[in-house]
Amino acid sequence: MFLASREIRRAPVRFGLLAGAIGLLMFLVFFQQTLASSLLNSFTGALQNQSGTVLVYSSEARNSLEASVLSPEIAAKVAAVPGVGQLGSLGEATMTLLAKGQQIDVAVIGAEAGKPGQPTKLISGRLATAPGEGVASSEARSFALGDTVTTAAGGSPVTIVGLTGQSQFNVQPTLFVTFDTFTALRKAANPDATMVLPSAVAVIPSSGVGPKALAAAINATVPQVTALSRSDAVANAPGVSSTQGSFAIVLALAVVVVALVTGFFFLILTVQKTAALTLLRAVGAPASYLVRGLIQQVVLVLGVALLVAVGLLVTATAVANTGLPLAIDPRALVISTVVVVGLSLLGVAVSVWRVLRIDPFQAVGRPGVGGIE
């Protein structure tokens, strides 16, 4: 540590600029990752954070809750499949609602009270248990406890009795209501509708039955449906895979840039001080000592860069106006940090190799370090 810290103290500007540059690149990685996870959560948070562990759509819907319609007869067939524990109807529609005198496009999700499909991230208030009650997603900040909303066409009001987190759908404010309330809202928005069918059914398997196994059994038993475990329903929702792929490319490029910048800087530094390293080897310094000093320098620079990146990330998520509710995912942040630091350490492998190849006898032929011409 003495060799590493002494050199950093002698050239603080050089190492400080490097730590700042790497910190900015790390911040780019972390912010892009946060933006990606927040965007995906705004697409499918309502599916991820509801109590049903299996979702059953009509096969024509192509894994889209909004495009799916299930008849009561098909729902009854799903309920009869062995392994189905609890089952509840799930409806979804985008409606224009009046809240605080303003019109807002809202994703309205109806689920039967006390059955699968209820939101699971309640942060204040309570769940909707009676007609005329609703639970709103808190991210969009369009609703508050006690607010009353109606459809633009009128109809019975819905009172907000709870707020739930990480539960948006299709990047819209989302309102969870009982299925009876959902039916009333649909009919108020479309008075000609005589029947409101569920979009899907949410299922909780019986004890000892896994969600994926039950989904496979439903697909094999009931025609014209697509049953997916909750995780598969989220992963296969329209737009999710393409969004993940686009962000993955950007993140991979940014991580590679961090590793290359770190690797090239320390390679150049190693080349510049080859004469001094050769002299140290000639006076008895083991190669492992020099390599340890190099690795310690890398770790110190990356540590400072990480502090810079996390500080910028916290500030950016607090003040950025992206139109999305940004939230730092600690688990994803740790994984990104491990990947970035690991590849950066791998990037200095060439520098380590050059240090290990230094021949102490070369000092004899280097007049600049006291050798013989």
From TrEMBL:
Domain ABC3 transporter permease C-terminal: 249-360
Origin superkingdom: Bacteria
UniProt keyword list: Cell membrane, Membrane, Transmembrane, Transmembrane helix, Transport
Statement: the UniProt record of this protein carries the keyword Transport: yes
Record-linked InterPro entries: ABC-4/HrtB_transporter, ABC3_permease_C
Pfam families tied to this protein: FtsX (PF02687)
Main subcellular localisation: membrane
Location relative to the cell: Cell membrane
Chain ranges passing through the membrane: 247-271, 298-320, 332-356
Topology class, membrane: Multi-pass membrane protein
GO cellular component: plasma membrane
Record's protein name: Peptide ABC transporter permease
Organism whose genome encodes this protein: Rhodococcus opacus
